[in-house]
């Protein structure tokens, strides 16, 4: 049910292997490439942040609150917790008349070393603004405030904001999302399991607008362009999603998810790639997704580097590399 | 060739899976449990630090330089980079009349958050003393200085220190170690690939002394007892190896290795466990090894927690767990 996705080489010998599943699908759900079981349910985690952000734009809340492209990009982000990320999240909350105290995502240290050192050197502790999901959560708060809903418990499945964002995800992916395929994500909101093909279909639609209502398609276009204009906000310096979109701009909408997920929408092809590394490893999902992307975006230095990253030890010596196998 | 080792649950559904191989063997190489291919070569990485430390003790260098149990424990360690670890490594170097400048392992940030914050809050950068391998490297420097060998390039395969430590590893595991199964480890020294059964056999010998020369068996006993007396030095607070040995002392010698390796010697049983998680994930190797250990050490709260760790999100909510499958 899983195929070999990526081999990890030390010297010229295989040290570790990542298996999983991968699919490329169009907006109708047609599969143009598949490896492994692409119908088995996988929790979609942070891959779907942009789909969950559709109601924020489509409802007009983003415009009424004056959220700019940076805010919209951060609403789709799993950011690395630099000062710029925390500041934009705080600004979104301020637009809704709120502050960090209403965020229900919990606090964690920035994932970027630079962000960790910046906080620690000032003797500060991280706040919920540094949580990689703070932009998504700030967007939820904005949506609640714009609609006049109570903000508290906005992460619970029965809250109107979760109902609306879940409905947007269900429509985009043509899946039934309920308590049977629901669990709790790292940031406290519900995460739903669906087949990898359904996930790719949702992003083929998000990338091209095909199969979406007119207003939803326009919201998707705005979110895509916001992220393409600010790829540094959707992750951070040197991170896969940021590097890919710094290179390809609006030609590739790339988003990781915890436990080995990677989605790349390819708007000009009307397709999207979705990868699940069965063991949950980001490196496996990234290399496999970059390798698949090169079939559509063409051979390219950036895709080569992302699909075959060199492994170096602490003195900088090259000790191995990843090698895609799909 | 790989068996299912561990499932990762989100809610009550399987989100990710770790496959690999696992073996329990005695000092003669007899297999009492096997899952997956236990003869396929795997790079042994940091699992073998204690075997590489045998010449330091057996040669008398440790005694001549006055290395205490803390130093011997750190020579076997993949530590988390707290101040205590860096200080002991510096002390070992001082015993040899050297300092951090001769270490060839490279510098990296402490893996423990507490260590990172401590450095950053003082505006400091990590040095080679914070490298998780600094104790092993300091031991190599001690061995070189005691023998009158030039210290420079002590990490290279042809250096007398690497020749002696590699020979100790080859003897303990009955394997031929040469350029055909050699690659470069994260800290710059050679790492060699061997079957998981050979690795377990080496640690069954290390744990019991059976199959080792008298001087080697005595050196192994001293290293085991040094680590058992200072389990906080071999890794760090909350880490698998430290927690296991804080609970079981000299009844279990536990050592992780990069890319999903875990070894646990069980001296009173004359056995050792070796696990390779095929994808390189520590969590998979740890849960599988703890589960296997409970077959010999008995059902025990600590082993239960280590084999079935609960996954919590950033607000502390329980969102899943690991579940051993072997």
From TrEMBL, chains A, B:
- Entries under Pfam families matching the protein: Asparaginase_II
Highest taxon listed in the record's lineage? Bacteria
Listed PANTHER family: L-ASPARAGINASE, PUTATIVE (AFU_ORTHOLOGUE AFUA_3G11890)-RELATED
What name has this protein been given in UniProt?
Answer: Asparaginase
């Amino acid at each position: 049910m899983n195929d070999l996705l990526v081999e990890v080489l030390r010297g010229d010998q295989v040290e570790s292997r990542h298996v999983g599943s991968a699919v490329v699908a169009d907006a109708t759900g047609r599969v143009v490439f598949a490896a492994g079981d692409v119908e088995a349910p996988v929790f979609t985690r942070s891959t779907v942040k942009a789909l969950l952000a559709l109601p924020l734009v489509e409802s007009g809340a983003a415009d009424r609150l004056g959220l700019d492209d940076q805010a919209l990009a951060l609403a789709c982000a799993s950011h690395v917790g630099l000062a710029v990320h925390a500041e934009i999240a705080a600004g979104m909350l301020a637009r809704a008349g709120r502050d960090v105290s209403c965020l229900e995502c919990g606090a964690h240290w920035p994932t970027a070393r630079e962000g960790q050192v910046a906080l620690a050197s000032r003797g500060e502790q991280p706040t919920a603004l540094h949580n990689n999901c703070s932009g998504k959560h700030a967007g939820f708060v904005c949506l609640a405030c714009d609609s006049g809903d109570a903000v508290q418990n906005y992460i619970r499945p029965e809250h109107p904001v979760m109902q609306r964002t879940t409905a947007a995800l269900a429509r985009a992916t043509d899946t039934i999302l309920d308590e049977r395929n629901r669990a709790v994500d790292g940031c406290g909101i519900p995460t739903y399991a669906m087949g990898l093909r359904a996930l790719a279909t949702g992003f083929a639609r998000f990338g091209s607008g095909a199969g979406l209502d007119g207003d939803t398609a326009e919201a998707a276009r705005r979110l895509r362009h916001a992220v393409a204009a600010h790829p540094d906000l959707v992750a951070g310096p040197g991170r896969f999603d940021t590097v890919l979109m710094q290179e390809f701009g609006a030609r590739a909408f790339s988003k990781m998810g915890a436990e080995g997920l990677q989605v790349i929408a390819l708007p000009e092809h009307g397709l999207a790639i979705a990868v699940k590394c069965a063991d949950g490893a980001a490196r496996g999902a990234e290399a496999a997704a970059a390798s698949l992307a090169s079939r559509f975006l063409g051979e390219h230095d950036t895709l080569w580097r992302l699909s075959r990253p060199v492994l170096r030890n602490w003195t900088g010596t090259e000790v191995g590399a990843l090698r895609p196998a799909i």
